[in-house]
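Shipment paperwork, digital attachment
Item: protein structure file
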Amino acid sequence: MSEIAIDEVEIAVAGLEVEPEAVRTSAALLSDAERLRAGRFAFDRDRRRFTVARARLRQLLVERLGTRPEAIELTQGVHGKPALAQRCGYPDLRFNVSHCEDVAVYAFASGREVGIDVEAVRALRDADEIAARFFSRRENEAYLGLYPNDRSLGFFNCWTRKEAFVKALGNGLSYPLDRFEVSLAPDEPAKILRVENTPGADCRWGMTSFSPCPGFVAAVVTESPMP
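Attachment content:
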């Protein structure tokens, strides 16, 4: 597991393919509800990855809260965003998690909402159709204007940035993806261009994109500190 800091956001990256003994050790750190959730996965690979990802989350929270893994109580928002239970008196630590295949990424921020997403960059047969349906008109034009060899990265740049934003909001994909715009070209910095009628420079959110490991791209969105 590796950790970095970007704009006062702590980011951790973990691999989820581990030895069977490590999976059993990870399972022992989960709550009863988390073990039940793991048991509902149809495939053993997905069950292992969820188990290890949740155990890593608890270990990372332990490091930041100075408590025991079993003492950490997690709740979920209406759209599934995890959070620390307020009644337990934890510090105002916000966090978010994403995993794709065997890579998990975690983001932690103090007193500010945060969202993170990771994807494996790959060719999708229906990428153009997805972009036309879910990207804004401006984003779709930027995507179609890329050189063919850049389109897969441009597509997942856009997707991870949009997903990280709605996860930071806590609305999941219930928030219309065409109501805000992000940059996506591989040679441009990650930024929010517009949120509804507000220019990105004037919105209260910051965005960063990074590669947690070869072949993957991730984005993190954080609420700006109150003045």
